[in-house]
Amino acid sequence: MPKVLVSDKLSETAVRVFKERGVDVDYEPTLGKDKEKLLSVIGDYDGLAVRSATKAMAPVIEAGKKLKVIGRAGIGVDNIDIPAATAAGVVVMNTPYGNAITTAEHAIAMMFSMVRLIPQANASTHQGKWEKSAFMGTEVYGKTLGVIGCGNIGSIVADRAVGLKMRVVAYDPFLTEERAIKLGVEKADLDTLLSRADIVTVHTPLTDQTRNILSRNNLSKLKKGAFVINCARGGLLDEEALKDMLDEGHIAGAALDVFETEPATDHPLFGNPKVVATPHLGASTKEAQENVAIQIAEQMADYLVRGAVSNSLNSPSVTAEEAPRLKPFIALAEKLGAFAGQLTRTGLKKIEVIYEGDISELNLKPLTASAVAGVLKPMLSEVNIVNAPVIARERGVSIAETVRDDADAYDSIIRLKITSETQTRTVSGTLFGGAPRIVEIKGVDMEASFSPHMLYTTNEDKPGFIGALGRALGEAGMNIGTFNLGREDSGGGAIALVAVDEPISDDLLEKVRALPHVTQATALAF
Ligand SMILES: NC(=O)C1=CN([C@@H]2O[C@H](COP(=O)(O)OP(=O)(O)OC[C@H]3O[C@@H](n4cnc5c(N)ncnc54)[C@H](O)[C@@H]3O)[C@@H](O)[C@H]2O)C=CC1
Ligand SMILES: O=C(O)C(=O)COP(=O)(O)O
Fold first, then answer.
1. Nearest to 25 by CA among 17, 33, 15
2. Is-contact 288 106, C-beta < 8 A?
3. Minimal CB count within 10 Å: which of 118, 236, 284, 395?
4. Domain limits, CATH 3.30.70.260, in the chain
5. How high is the pLDDT of residue 344?
């Protein structure tokens, strides 16, 4: 049974969902904060479920020798090293919608708290002071809200702001004009947004492109007296510049849910009467936490138990319905790849996967990735469906996918065409009774199933070869399971694919190579 570690404070409903779906689970909601402990235990787990407190960076991924999936019960994945996970073949998934409404509501709550000074007034009133004139606020009606990043959360914030009769200007390179019109927002470039906004709210992910998007320079482009909200990520905003501009009075107030360093227990902005702060509470409602915990547990269990992939940031999607249909084809693609990979000795240049017949209706991305993984596996140790396309690309191997509707004699065929520095090789296969079967090698028809140990030979089609090969195997005490032959023309090139019961020794291979008419002999393992 696969085993998952929950290392952050997810709703405990996740534990029930994992168990119901056949996954063993250790619930250790504070373990993720202890880096050393996490490193020492992660090797036991197939999956790691986190929120934002656990830093699933390269050392953790490297120590997770059995790790297959990291699940983020939430949206932001800046606490997960996705390139390192991809390189290690670990699927990374998140729950892109589960806490979006809650986070947008927090941004709106922060906006009102900030412009009406509610936390400050609350503290003062609880102290028995009645400072009615100390807390003069600002009305949002008719004001302009600048939304930087108008994706799931930004769109919900915009929608709520439109409901409050605010004008909304949005900057997002991926926001289409149609979507902007539908949302009732005006699309603008960043400079225009900054010059027009009374209140700016940022909702982009933290990436190399967005880091410091609210830089000192950009903050200085705001109108005097503007307000700033950050409920997305620390690091999007220059905190030092914000402090200076609050002190100078250029910025009237700020509402911050997130900080460059978290947990933030000591910060130059703490105690500033113009700042409203919360400890990364954007996603913290009962509803959102139930949503994301259930969803991530379902997704991770579906992957670990059934091979379904959803909401992955580094692997092609496979629905739970597709997974069982794809499974035998994934095995076929990988075995064909393994066959070709074991025969490719010189620089690999291109892998082309051709799908013919009914199979072309299926989700082909995972099949192509499996074929590529199969090809690369004999050359590299840790390669799988997740990292294979990236590894191939890094090594300058191009990947092509071709689809043809008709498939000659078979309902579905996968043809693999491998181009190396010296030659192009093809191998094709189909499913027979659900099991992978080779039907063509180098243009020669063949009928062979895969076995753990196989001998592949090419030879000139001359009398006596089959007997000589059988004798050589017999003399080595090698039991033959199946013996499959194919040839181009009588007397031309021929192929033998022999399933044997044990691994083929180098010694035996040399003997086979020395037989008359043999042009090549290779031991294959599947
Ligand atoms: N405070 C909290 O507790 C929470 C914070 N978040 C943060 O909110 C972020 C956004 O979440 P979603 O809206 O769900 O993500 P999303 O992916 O739906 O939207 C992000 C938007 O930002 C845009 N974007 C990317 N680069 C940009 C750039 N350079 N300039 C302008 N726009 C850019 C994208 O085109 C996209 O539309 C998350 O990545 C996460 O960091 C999310 C949930 C809770
Ligand atoms: O989903 C996100 O991106 C969040 O920032 C929420 O973080 P949390 O799960 O509350 O640690």
1. 15
2. no
3. 395
4. 452-526
5. 84
Q: Rounded distance, CA 164 to CA 152, Å?
A: 19
Name which of 210, 202, 83 is nearest 154 in CA terms. Answer: 202
Atom of ligand 2 nearest to the CA of 280: 10
CATH number of 452-526: 3.30.70.260
Ligand 2 binding residues, C-beta < 6 A: 51-52, 74-76, 99, 280, 282-284
Ligand 2 atom with least separation from CA of 52: 11
- 3-state class (DSSP) for residue 157: helix
Two tokens, residue 284: 């913290």
Q: Backbone phi, then psi, for 414, in 5-degree steps?
A: -110, 125
Protein residue with its CA nearest to atom 6 in ligand 2 = 283
Give 6-52 pLDDT, tens digit per residue.
Answer: 999 999 999 999 999 999 999 999 999 999 999 999 999 999 999 99
Burial of 191 (0-12, 13-18, 19+ CB in 10 A): exposed
**Mean pLDDT of the chain, nearest integer:** 94
Q: CATH fold of 100-277, please?
A: Rossmann fold (3.40.50)
Which tokens hold the place of 148? 């930087």
Question: Which ligand sits nearest to residue 292's alpha carbon?
Answer: 2
Indicate which residues carry an active-site annotation.
233, 262, 280
> What's the pLDDT score for residue 196?
98
CATH number for the domain running over 3-97+287-308: 3.40.50.720
Residue 178 CB-density burial (10 A; 0-12 exposed, 13-18 middle, 19+ buried) = exposed
Phi-psi map region of 408: left, alpha, beta (phi>0 left; psi -120 to 50 alpha): left
How far away, in angstroms, is 200 Cα from ligand 2 center?
21
The position carrying tokens 């409404």 is 101
Protein residue with its CA nearest to atom 3 in ligand 2: 76
Alpha-carbon gap, residue 369 to 315, rounded angstroms: 9
Q: Using an 8 Å Cβ cutoff, are 147 and 196 in contact?
A: no
| Residue bearing tokens 């807390």 | 135
The CA distance from 83 to 60, in Å, is 13
pLDDT at 491: 64
Average pLDDT for 283-302: 98
pTM of the predicted structure, to 2 decimals: 0.84
**CATH fold for the domain made of 316-450:** 60s Ribosomal Protein L30; Chain: A; (3.30.1330)
More confident residue, 112 or 463: 112
**Where does the chain hold its CATH 3.30.1330.90 domain(s)?**
316-450
Angstrom distance (rounded) from CA 64 to CA 42: 5
Ligand 2 atom with minimal separation from the 99 CA: 1
Per cent of the chain over pLDDT 90 is 86
Mutate to test the pocket of ligand 1, among 78, 94, 103 (most ligand atoms within 8 A of CB): 103
**pLDDT tens digits for range 7-19:** 999 999 999 999 9
CATH 3.40.50.720 maps onto the chain at 3-97+287-308, 100-277
Select from 466, 152, 443 the least CA-distant residue to 311.
152
